[in-house]
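Recall the central idea of this unit: under ordinary conditions, the amino acid sequence of a chain determines the structure it adopts. In this exercise we apply that idea directly, starting from the sequence alone.
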Amino acid sequence: MTDTNKLQDQLFRGIDARLERDLEEGDVAYFNALMLKLEYLTKIVVLGVVSCIDDDTDGHRYSLEHKLVRSQSLVDWVEILNTALVGTPAQFLSSSARKVTRELTERKGHSAWWFDALLDLRESARLLGTHAGLGEKVPLRRFFEIGAQIRNRTRGHGATITTECHAACPHLEQAIDAVIENMELLKLPWVYLHQNLSGKYRVSALLGNTVSLDYLKRTTNFRLQSGVYVQLEAQSDPSKLRYVPLIYTTPEIHDIALPNGNFEKGKFETLSYVTNTVGKESGARWSRPGTNLPGSETDGVETLEPVGGIFTNIPSLQSGYVPRPNLEHRVLTELATTERHPIVTLTGPGGIGKTSVALRAINQISQHDKPPYEVVLWISARDIDLLDDGPKPVSRNVFSQRDIARATVRLLNPAERNETDFDPITYFQDCLKEGTAGTTLFVLDNFETLQNPIEVYEWLDAHIRLPNKVLITTRFRDFRGDYPIQITGMLDDEADKLIDQHAKRLGISQLISGRFKSELISESEGHPYVIKILLGQSAKENRAVKPSRIVATADRLLDALFKRTFEALSSAAQRVFLLLCSWRMYVPEVAVQAVALRPEVERYDVAAALDEAIQYSLIDQTTSSKEDTRFVGVPLAAAIFGQRELQVSRFKAAVEEDRKLLMGFGAGKRDSVNKGALPRINNLINGISKRVRNDPNEWERLKPILEYLANCHPKTYLRLVDLVLDPRGKQRSPADAERYLKAYLETADMAEKEQAWDRLLDLYAELHDTVGEVHALCEIALLPTSNFVKVSNVANQLNSRIRDLKDQRIEDAWSYEVKELLQEVINVLERSIDKLSATDCSRLAWLHLNVGNRERARDVAKIGLKHQSDNEHCHRIIKYLES
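Accordingly, the structure predicted from this sequence is:
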């Protein structure tokens, strides 16, 4: 095998292994296997070429992919290849793919390597009874046209006989191998990228030398969804990677499946050319029409018109808008100020009202006596309209930086636009800096649908200068430096008005009871678009339908609201989102973090994953007033979407195991969070205590989780002490109990420390650790909550323990540490000596003796005798000192 073949091993290894097996079966079997390899090669090439088409506002690459998942024959695939190479989409082929596309389209004769391959393929076609014409000069793409002809003649409509196969196979094999070994596209690195929970990538080589992609194994700075990629240029730059979404495999590259048509009910067929396995993949991504979509209802008008005191192209605010005063005031205040925050971002889930709130605020600004802006430019990148009867795809106006600049030029129509050296991007940048047409507010609606939102944001941020400002509406933001305003669900009174208004418009007011209205607001969490859809379904059925049932069947709605956002999440954020969807309750953040510590789980930053999903408006958060603890949960619609995604997720098995443990914390709705996290942690411990008692292995498995919870909520340490000292349990461990009590003491309130030291004292007594007892007693005596009576009793116990140590001749009895602790107890009693009884004085005197202060011991004993001349304890000390 040549070096080239070794590098191609993963992509073609399986099909080559099948060829070797079928060769032993005879000429017909071998011919059929070669035809499968030819079909497989054709589809790989078509998918690779289509991936090289840049995104554009008309969605040419999407249109071709839309056709591919529905294509029923290899002829269809080749037509799509030709469209990509010489049709309208060709003008959007990446400049980095020129070498790839040139050899497919450039006509050459015998000097080209592919000419001999075409001659072999033509000869194979002739031997199989089909004519394939070749001119003196031909492009490489002709190879795939002839291949489709042969496929159609033999496997489609023919009955090939053994002699034909025997004669054609050598030519066919040579032609296929020549293309695989020489084609520019197949010399590029092809990989399967799998994002680990850490954010780094597993890079599985498919084709070519992939060393230049090793940087992805070491960094978390890039966001690429898991899948197949081809690298157009050998640079440490993810923008040079082209995602090939219609090649299906796994990080282990056990098998590779390609689209095989039969698109129905939102799914299409895939086929493995090695194992003949037929699968089904979701076609939701390619469900909207490929071409000729209408414009959005929120597109700006084509010219600037006076509105109040400004010139603008903003669209009309849709009828039925319910005012949201608090939110509108925040946005209006920020936009009316031109001395700070040059970029303001409205973030929130789809349909939450970002666009409507922005339009409302701009309309209000336009009515000011002296508006802060002379011009407001509305530039929309929206590709889906959320209409009352459901989400509808629309054509978007802008997709890239150049599109934004051109839209600005069309609206402002500068006099210099027709000059030969005029550059729209430079002009737009000048507008950002100087407000060429006057102080300007630039509004970019649906920012997340742009080709590279982060890059566009950085571009805007680099050039915008106050008093000009930029207002962005987006479902998610991966950038920093802006002023974000979170758009959340409606307040109850706002949602109440929306329900009344929309129900009246639908003619179903009589169906809306107070109870149904409350359920609707609660389940939708004030999401205005979800409320409208739920009411619309009730109108269709002419009855009040349970919200959860409606949402569960609204696949298109769920995809429109959440699919794009979900796919933009990192692997870690997807996992925590799916976990919270699997059990729709509000749980303490610490519970999610603890669950991730299961021994079987790959370690990842749970807090960062939660923050990301919250920032992307998929997870809701609220804070317990009792403990200042964050609780997280998922609204109904997002949860049902997540539950559906979980069924096909690679995280399914792991999430199901996480969910079992998470459920141990107990159920809780949003309104229960003020009880704090501790009751939920106690639920978990109560639930697992029996399992732990009977199975030491279960204790070791859960120990890191429980210790993490205790570290976050130290009172949990006391519950762990109960667990490890349970006489019925096989996990009994006094050493762990000591460690837990000491950890609790590090953060416990002063009033709680005595109880912990008392428990340590008992533990040391059980362990016959006299030095430990001395230490615990001293700490109890030194607590600010201990009065002189308590300290006196502790002194009595201390003297007894010291005597035991001396009787046992334990060296630690005379250690510096013990003497220091005793001295501190002595100091406490000395400060109250006027209040001490004769017996108290005797105890203090013995402490002095134990630290070697004989003279002070005598003095204290005498003070005691002044209080009670016949006190036997004081007399015994004096007698001992005089002996």
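The longest helix spans residues 27-51.
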